[in-house]
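Researcher: Quick sanity check before group meeting.
Model: Go ahead. Protein one:
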Amino acid sequence: MSFLFILHKVTILYGDCKNQYSQHPFFAISFYNKSIDVWETMIHNNLKIMLSFIFCSLFVLGIQCTPAKKNMAENEQKKEDSSTTINETVNNTMEETEPAGENKEEETFIPVDLKNRTEFPPLDNKEKYIAWMKKNRPDNEAFLGKRWDRKVRIKNYHKETPDNVLMAYLLTPREIFARDYNAEVAYDSNWHMIEDGQTISGPHLVCRMTQNLDIKPDHKVLEIGTGSGYHSALMAQLSNHVYSIEIKKNLHNVTDAIYKSLLDKYPEYRNVKRKNADGYYGWEEFAPFDRIVVTCGIDHIPPQLLKQLGVNGIMVIPVGPMAGQQVILKVTKTEDADGKIHLDREDIYGGKITEHFVPLTKEDGSWHSKENK
């Protein structure tokens, strides 16, 4: 009788857990935790009841562990399949990759000149925005509402966000650069994991850093840390000349393939030059740059980046201890009448907010730091 009573209790408990967590890969853990709650209420009963409860719990738990593991494996396989598909595109297009030593004379040709753009998405009405995008852009309609809603929150959170940055945000398909496995949560406020332990920063942070760069169409913009490709894609709505460097080879290949798959639908992405290299040393071939943005943390400002930043140029960079939080600095380079260079530093959050970025690494995976520069 004790056994049947306990089996009845465990069956009810299993049903409750299944209703709440059946689609969750950690169903078994949820069931175990709830089992502990029941165990505590019965701890003072006789040994036979306790042993029966243990047996029944393990029996039901053992049944569920197999599909739980299968569910986790399917999720991982979905992620791997997404990367495999992209990597296959890379292999098919490797011959099209631009050589490391491009000819600087190519800069006389602009694939898509943003200065000729005459139509822009409405910024004042959600329905008008969605209708305009459906008529003029190839974006997936299913994400347009979420994109607009996040725009509203960005503007409410920081009312000084300029219209050109909001426009660039609204034109950029974040769901694509966030990867398929993050698409449904791409317009959340937080960051998400992508390949090689890297992340795609949240939309609020990307817009705030972009705002402080004050990008104009003729500006040459250098990005250190291509990552997902989202930030450079957003800046491609503001500048005709975007250069982006990613040190991780696999991540560079995956993001490069995404870009190449979008060139027909988003021709402005042809203005984004990309290469796999150590961004600590910049891209001297195309220096000086009007704007430089660093999307990874470091405990000092790289000398080569300061050197490649043009006069009256702006750099936005997270600076702070590698194992802690970084302050996002806006560094402005000016020159006085005597030819002396001045660097003005400003915390873009005014000391109110710090962020934690992935580190700026070397080719061997170690961190760039003041001690080993």
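Researcher: Fine. The other one?
Model: Protein two, sequence then structure:
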Amino acid sequence: MRNNCLHSLGMKRGLLSGALAVMLAGNAALAQTPPGPPPFGPPPGAGQLKLPPGALSGPPPGAPPGPVLTPAQQIAASLPPPGPGGLPPRPPLPADAPMPPSDPRDFQGTWIHSQPLEFRAQKDMYGMAAPFTMEGVKVLARRVQSLIDGKPFINASAICRPPGPQWQRDLNFPFQIMQANDHFAFIFEEYHGRWNILLDPPSAAPGAPKAYMGRSVGHWDGTTLVVETTDFKQAIWIDVDGTPLSANGKLIQRIRKVNDGGHVPFLEIITTIIDPVYYTKPWSIARTFGWQPYQAVFAEYNCEEQVGDPSVSADAGLVPEPQD
């Protein structure tokens, strides 16, 4: 994971060539081609009941149609699948472990991703395909192809720059939350990252330069912290494989501490991605984070030692990404 997803280098080239050929044919040609059936689901006739003579098959009149993929979504679905995400084993907390604060608005403490890492966000939180525009899927396909070619593109993580809030949170490394009346700070082991959230924007210094992590402003909606992140210094990657967000894109994060009756509450973050350049509509992904008080002392992390730093390897294998 730290080596810029070189896990994908062994993927078959043939799976992607057809997708890229379709894309290069142009939006106009694609628009004239009726979309085919979605590439999932059982084969025709599988699992269907045998109806009595004279009975009508199919959905009842007025029933909404099933999901039909757009041309851009068809291209995304035809890309080689991402590598399988892992989740490091973690022993359960002992019964006498320190617990998170009881105040539902107090998120302070140490948390870590409780789901397997997703190298590529292919679907939203409801299982629907990400709503790519043709421009968005073009960028994603180009990045996946670069992995197949063995020449992955340079990205923020490869040169030890902040990778953006979504990618930073998604990695399987612990982070600490600190908060005060006017701000939150998420401190990450990986990349020595820091995500600052302002609750009182007028009190912040005016004219602050744009940041790689963007500018995040939050407010409370009951016990949910709603954070809007904009003003990115540059376009960012949503995930390891390069699902894109333009510099003018927006992330809206809804953060809450959930106690579902279990022994330990967990943190839930639902992120809505808004970017008309790369997506036809907003879409949301959900992540959960477990309480880990015993990982409050971070392990040493040396970003400079990962593949991508030419001072470590004269030929790290990464190349600049073409700009459209």
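Researcher: One line on it for the slide.
Model: DSSP finds five helices and eleven strands in the chain.
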